[in-house]
């Protein structure tokens, strides 16, 4: 059974990570990896800061979780993400064997967990990840809208 109170708590933590990205002028996406109701990995987008196209919130959180437990397999872990993962991040979720993903809002342009693709559940590889969406969706959308509105405003004055 999925406990909504616990899921909201962890998605709120992912939203806090997204807020860190927003403060650093990064696309506000955050992620946390959870094992036995404890956060063992956190991440927020740092693509611009690190000049690294792979520095997505999910990648950073997964790496932190793997380092925390000393294993590349996260079979008993869940990941909470504020935006539907892209193909790269969905691949990392599959490779690390994460059990469940909870994400806030769909990404119709790059989403690989239900929007454009559904690689986590299509059954073409030896692992399936349970997928849940819509958790704190409006809060996530507001952060993203704030970021892109600000970006568009800055581009007009340049």
Structural description of this entry:
The mean pLDDT is 93. The protein is globular, with a radius of gyration of 15 Å. The protein has 158 residues and is α/β, with parallel strands linked by helices. Strands 2-1-3-4-5 form a 5-stranded mixed beta sheet. The chain has 5 helices and 5 strands; from the N terminus they run αββααβαββα. Helix 1 (4-23) runs parallel beside helix 5.
Termini Cα gap: 52 Å
* Major sheet details: 5 strands, mixed
Helix content: 40-55%
Q: What string, H for helix and E for strand, traces the elements in order?
A: HEEHHEHEEH
Strand order of the largest sheet: 2-1-3-4-5
- Overall pLDDT confidence: 93
What structural class do helix, strand and pairing data support?
A: alpha/beta
Uncertain spans: none
Return Rg in Å.
15 Å
Strand content: 15-25%
Number of distinct helices: 5
Shape annotation: globular
- The number of strands is 5
